Structure of DUF1778 domain-containing protein:
Amino acid sequence: MPQVISHENQRIAFRISSEDKAILTKAAELSHTNMTEFMLQLVSIIWCNTFAR
């Protein structure tokens, strides 16, 4: 059976402390991006480092 690929945006939620959220918010601001783009950049870097080993 063919697999259906969805191109819809999906949401991911996770819980972090107020202090950690403030750090991530400030880092995104200093990177001139929003939280979503900042987190995707981080995940991309970590993914590349993990699979480059």
Summary: The chain is about 55% helix and 0% strand. The chain has a mean pLDDT of 91. The first helix runs from residue 18 to 30. The two ends are 35 Å apart (CA to CA).
